[in-house]
Amino acid sequence: YTVAVLPGDGIGPEVTREAVAAVDAAGAAHGFHVRWSTHDFGGVAIDRHGPPLPDATLAACRAADAVLLGAVGGPRWVGGAETPETGLLAIRKALGLFANLRPARVDDPALSPLKAGIAAGADVLVVRELTGGLYFGDKVEGDEEASDLCRYSRGEVERIAHVAFKAARDRRGRVTSVDKANVLATSRLWRRVVTAVAADYPDVALDHMYVDAAAMALVTGPTRFDVILTENLFGDILSDALSVLPGSIGLLGSASLGDGGPGMFEPIHGSAPDIAGEDRASPAGAIEAAAMMLDQLGETRAAGALRQAVAEAIAGGVRTPDLGGTARCSAFGAAVRGRID
Amino acid sequence: YTVAVLPGDGIGPEVTREAVAAVDAAGAAHGFHVRWSTHDFGGVAIDRHGPPLPDATLAACRAADAVLLGAVGGPRWVGGAETPETGLLAIRKALGLFANLRPARVDDPALSPLKAGIAAGADVLVVRELTGGLYFGDKVEGDEEASDLCRYSRGEVERIAHVAFKAARDRRGRVTSVDKANVLATSRLWRRVVTAVAADYPDVALDHMYVDAAAMALVTGPTRFDVILTENLFGDILSDALSVLPGSIGLLGSASLGDGGPGMFEPIHGSAPDIAGEDRASPAGAIEAAAMMLDQLGETRAAGALRQAVAEAIAGGVRTPDLGGTARCSAFGAAVRGRID
Ligand SMILES: CC(C)[C@H](C(=O)O)[C@@H](O)C(=O)O
Ligand SMILES: CC(C)[C@H](C(=O)O)[C@@H](O)C(=O)O
């Protein structure tokens, strides 16, 4: 396989380094080889080249089987015309990554901010539409007045709905579509299209929920959800709310997928500039992102081996500071590699 | 005072009945008198008159010193061209109610869905812009494509910012403005205007947060917030997430205020059609809404007496089913009246 690595900013380089090494170890054990190439993206690309997504980086991503991203952003680049965040939106659009998959599972309810009895057993996948809605509609900037347009087409809703229903088949067979159909025209279209697509999946149960009610339910009863299907901005908010329920966002990864082209895989944590370069970040989220990448490439046994190794390392007491331990980023990575078979 | 009562649908009539009686008792004890008039609004108005907000109802509200609302909505009216929800949006716009105040305080951390150590001490006021943004922008309905426009003007942001900064002065002096300025043009205008307004309030601390980070922080550390200032849709989502933290949404009220005209006061719970007419709902939220109304009318001692009476009734074991008890709606109302002095 060919994988384009975009280490990005802050702790991005140190966590992707461990993820790359973990995949190499899994490849050696499971009989595949990855050809890695590393490219500037985000703040580091702004500093070196001007734009956060240089043409050469995009070309390398297009030519790859998958993209592994670290993290982008930091206070240095806030307020510019081109920011690491505009680079992120640009690469999602350019690669057609319309489906963002963000799973979170509560393994140890003691670590959750929710009462253990409420958190126990929660296992939710947010399927977020990633290239439409308010993020990409026409914008009018202004000091007296400003506007953003939220637009969705039937086709955009259909294709993300299929992703959610298919994912539900491999899980517990339930999709909750989240919208604000009592207020928004785009949500009314969303609800009609999702309901129509559901007819193709008689084995999957569908219900609809308003976004405000969903925000409450994630806190009061997250176990009621299996797959949450929602549009771009609601997905941004709800997937972040979901991500804190397991107790450490350092463990979570996300996948952004298009139609046939390379997918992009990243930990959900940010660039954490305050601890960058100190070898203190947890690479577990980046390794989970790499596991999602291997799943996508068809190397599901190697993906399972990565996850198993992370779980064993943590259970064996190798813990980074976010989990209350003192293990270094590099030491955690080595512990994972040593447990891959 | 003249107050227009809009009991609305579901449990609305039974809870407002107790709130009205509680205010009458407080008026007798504190030397004021309220002239109540009751009007159809919401689903009940659709059934009787056609529109959810009949002209006569709106005229009565305009002529009143305040509006006390129960709750609107129910499965019977879903999907119509005019719904109870469109009535709610129409009355907010017609009365110019641009400021929605939704306070929530964790009194008993044992009742919170959050771990007690995280919830203890949380005391947050959401100041939500209520007549702009995606709710009221141009809409294009469609089966192939749909859109909603999010628009804000400088003046709309300024006036709600002033509400938030003033509220913070009477609290702990801290405003967190929530936006999505890394993506939305309206959020960038929002952030600039809020920052400019802050110059008038050197005694209030201001910080800015992205909406996704705010959704996480409400779950992982709600005590970091004092006043949250945000636009209409973000406020809808975040205030609902906040509202579950105390453990029972049955206790909370909200105020919607304009510029000089009558304000509208309502419990934050919905119409709960499943238990309507069974005398099982808690009127505590409606009584809290009435207390917020008395505060606004300048009867702050009577407002305090209402809150005190509710707290004493609950502490004395008079609890409706949402708090684990068996007290009826009417019995709880009587217990509150009996404790007003
Ligand atoms: C950085 C920002 C533009 C981005 C988003 O809002 O999509 C981030 O919050 C995310 O969820 O990946
Ligand atoms: C019923 C709905 C239109 C309304 C809103 O979204 O404003 C409600 O959720 C609220 O918060 O008052």
Question: Any overview of this molecule?
Answer:
The structure is a homodimer of 341-residue chains. Chain A has 341 residues and is α/β, with parallel strands linked by helices. Chain A folds into two domains: 181 residues, 3-Layer(aba) Sandwich (Isopropylmalate Dehydrogenase), CATH 3.40.718; 149 residues, Isopropylmalate Dehydrogenase, CATH 3.40.718. Chain A has twelve helices and twelve strands. A ten-stranded mixed beta sheet of chain A has the order 2-1-3-12-11-4-5-10-8-9, sandwiched between helices. Chain A has a two-stranded antiparallel sheet with strand order 6-7. In chain A, helix 7 links the parallel strand 8 and strand 9. In chain A, helix 1 runs parallel beside helix 12, helix 8 packs parallel to helix 9 and helix 11 packs across helix 12. The first copy, chain A, is globular, with a radius of gyration of 20 Å. Chain A starts with a strand and ends with a helix. The relative contact order of chain A is 0.17. The mean pLDDT of chain A is 97. At the A-B interface, strand 6, strand 7, helix 7, helix 8 and helix 9 of A face strand 6, strand 7, helix 7, helix 8 and helix 9 of B. Bound molecules: 3-isopropylmalic acid (IPM) (2 copies). One 3-isopropylmalic acid sits at the interface of chains A and B.
